[in-house]
């Protein structure tokens, strides 16, 4: 599991509205996690739990941190990975701690400030879900502070390898990266108009146009026109009604 994205979490300002939105747009089923002392909603695709939803902590609200999706990357040892991350120029924002009966995690940023989490679960991991199955996260994209130094950082930390590189002209190189030989995402140096580096997660839907219609009617704002990408899939990027950035990917319009 080391270097594999294993969980996704939305921290937002209106959990009930977000729950209804993603249930409709992505097709997830929802249920309360039953965690003592906190409200935490689980999003599932079929039998597979994919993501979680929670209210933004008070500290984040006070700092005016916007709602956002956070990806959790599996590691063999959270404490060791956090130390390696720090030595590589990253920052540990929430030191490693245990979630009873779930696992151990830390919230971190890469050297340029893109946020993600480190995670080591308790017990046996669940059976893997097909990366392109409806409702799963089909692609992980980093708008990096600098492509070369970012790739070296993540490769050292997670063992990711370079796959195909695409020349995007003035936008620079889009580097696809792989985990255990399977392409799982891409990264590029962020355009000048993008103020901060960030991770973006692409949720699989069966048909893009219908999902866009559902998203728009639910209050989402589209950030681009639907675009066909190499391999024939179609994508769109958007913000949800609370302002969290997300993306959709489908095999057809």
TrEMBL record:
Note the InterPro entries from the entry.
Answer: Anthracycline_SecMetBiosynth, Glyas_Bleomycin-R_OHBP_Dase, Glyas_Fos-R_dOase_dom, VOC_core
Q: Which PROSITE patterns match?
A: VOC
Query: VOC domain location, by residue?
Result: 4-121, 136-251
- Pfam families the UniProt entry points to: Glyoxalase (PF00903)
Q: What is this protein called?
A: Glyoxalase
Highest classification ranks of the organism: Bacteria, Pseudomonadati, Pseudomonadota, Alphaproteobacteria, Hyphomicrobiales
């Amino acid at each position: 599991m080391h270097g594999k994205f294993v969980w996704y979490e939305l921290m937002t300002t209106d959990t009930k509205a977000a729950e209804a939105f993603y249930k409709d747009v992505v097709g997830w089923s929802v249920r309360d996690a039953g965690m003592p002392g906190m409200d935490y909603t689980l999003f599932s695709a079929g039998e597979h739990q994919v993501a979680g939803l929670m209210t933004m902590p008070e500290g984040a609200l006070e700092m005016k941190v916007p709602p956002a999706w956070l990806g959790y990357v599996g590691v063999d040892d959270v404490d060791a990975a956090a130390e390696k991350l720090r030595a590589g120029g990253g920052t540990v924002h929430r030191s490693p701690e245990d979630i009873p009966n779930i696992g151990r995690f830390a919230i971190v940023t890469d050297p340029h400030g893109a946020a993600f989490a480190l995670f080591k679960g308790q017990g046996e991991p669940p059976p893997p879900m097909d990366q392109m199955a409806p409702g799963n996260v089909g692609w992980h994209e980093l708008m990096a502070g600098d492509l070369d130094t970012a790739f070296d950082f993540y490769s050292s930390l997670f063992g990711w390898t370079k796959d195909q590189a695409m020349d995007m002209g003035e936008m620079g190189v889009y580097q696809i990266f792989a985990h255990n030989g399977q392409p799982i995402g891409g990264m590029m140096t962020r355009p000048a108009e993008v103020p901060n580096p960030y991770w973006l997660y692409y949720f699989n839907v069966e048909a893009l146009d219908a999902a866009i219609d559902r998203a728009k009617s639910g209050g989402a704002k589209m950030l681009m026109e639907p675009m066909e990408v190499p391999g024939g899939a179609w994508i769109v990027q958007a913000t949800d009604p609370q302002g969290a950035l997300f993306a959709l990917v489908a095999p057809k319009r």
